[in-house]
Amino acid sequence: MNEILMPESVDKEILWTPLGLVTPLQARVSGHVPLRPARGISIDTRTLREDDLFFAIKGDNSDGHDYVPAAFAKGAMAAVVDEAHADRLAAHGPLYVVHEVLPALERLGQAARRRVEARVVAVTGSVGKTSTKEALRLVLTQGGSVHASVASYNNHWGVPLTLARMPRDARFGIFEIGMNHPGEITPLVGMVRPHVAIITTVAPVHLEYFENVEAIADAKAEIFSGLVPGGVAIIHRDIPQFERLAEAARHSPAGLIASFGTHEKADARLLDLTPSSDHSMVKASIQGETLTYRLGAPGRHFAENSLAVLLAAKACGVPLEDAAAVLAFCAPQAGRGQQLVLEAGDGPFRLIDESYNANPASMRAALEMAGTLPLEGVGRRIAILGDMLELGPQAPDLHAQLADILREACFDLVFAAGPLMRHLYDALPSGLRGEWRAKAEDLVPIVGATVQRNDIVLVKGSNGSRMKLLVESLKDKARRAGAETV
């Protein structure tokens, strides 16, 4: 498979011995048994490291078997291949030959889960999965070594890959679990078997594949089915689907249901939020204990999800004070709310990079957060928005409805890209309209000529709308101007 280009975080100690791989893979060895242990697992030759075990997974656009020679050239200790390709590839190096490669990766992941004593947390939700996972990664280091998903490795190959990479001595494991169809979470969480399962929120996403939001809630609630007996189910208390999710948790192996939000009955309750341009001060009550802490990310949605993080940390045995203290260092990632202060040529402007993904809930959260940031001088709030995908027949209305949110958040100018965003553009009052173009790249020169000092510029859209092009073009503008600071 040669479709994923992400940095891999792999423990370079011995992960699997050569003979120890045979049984979980249900493999026969072609040629001699590998002499070196596996120190990592890879499905992508571009990021493969020496002594990695390479899995030749078939992707939508390529077949990993075509890259086995390249894997050995980069130092793979062995490759996992299927019977149909074994003879052709035997000359390149040691092979573990299986009936199908992806199920073999799943079996290895399950074997990794069985051999560890780690406390395991699984996270799903319509919005905030990755940022919550990254906050947990940071917070749980206060209790020991942490193994977590790379990037958004949350699907049918990402979850078993992350499991297979989990070191035997990991103290904690954190797994992001995604879906866009019913029934997808159940097998994934069955592999992970978490002690704690979090649903950040439920929102109208992937409506192309679901009848309504309630159906999405039911699909998210599948995460509770994999809990170890007596595990903890953590649910957003403020959302309309709370009771539905809680009922699903009650019929699961969960031994405790905990909630978070602003609701007076929430176990982790947000009491006060003071936003700033690059952080928030949060006051909260966590199961009766009042805490005030700095969160290294602005925005109510980040603050509310930090409550779920603290509940999970406490369930994993990390003291609340220790967990809350490190949230000050929890900053949004590129594409997921990262803020950059860039040079416009006549002075600095602030770029909010939300280019990785978008749906109605995350769009509202990002726009509202940007609306709380103070403007300086003659600065403006500028939104550069791309299509929100997989919303089905409701998509035109859901895009048009963003007009009210933009007005409420006090934006001054809106640029839009994509056929769905045309519905928003048409719904905007004339004073808010910048330009609309069918493709993101067509906005690049227009936006570059518009942004000036003291502006706050939010770029957001589904990954498929390619809004990252606008982010990169604004970074290039700053580089040409001769300065860039984070």
Summarize, please.
With 486 residues, the protein is an alpha/beta fold. It has 17 helices and 21 strands.
Give the tally of structural domains: 3
Distance between the termini: 35 Å
In CATH, the homologous superfamily of the largest domain goes by the name: Mur-like, catalytic domain
* Top-tier CATH class of the largest domain: Alpha Beta
What structural category arises from helix and sheet content? alpha/beta
Number of strands: 21
What overall form do the CA principal axes indicate? globular
Characterize the largest beta sheet: strand count, sense, and whether it forms a barrel: 9 strands, mixed
Looking at the structure, the CATH topology of the largest domain is UDP-N-acetylmuramoyl-L-alanine:D-glutamate ligase
Helix content: 25-40%
CATH architecture of the largest domain: 3-Layer(aba) Sandwich
Task: Please give the radius of gyration in angstroms.
Answer: 23 Å
For the largest sheet, list the strands in their spatial order.
7-8-6-9-10-11-12-13-14
Low-confidence stretches at least 5 residues in length (pLDDT < 50)?
Answer: 1-11
Strand fraction equals 15-25%
Written overview of the protein:
Helix content is 31%, strand content 22%. The protein contains 17 helices and 21 strands. The strands form three sheets. Strands 7-8-6-9-10-11-12-13-14 form a nine-stranded mixed beta sheet, with helices on both faces. It has a seven-stranded mixed beta sheet with strand order 19-18-17-20-16-15-21, sandwiched between helices. Helix 9 (242-250) links the parallel strand 10 (232-236) and strand 11. Helix 4 (101-115) packs across helix 6 and helix 5 packs across helix 10 (300-315). The model is unreliable at 1-11 (pLDDT under 50). Residues 347-462 form the Mur ligase C-terminal domain. One of its GO terms (cellular component) is cytoplasm.
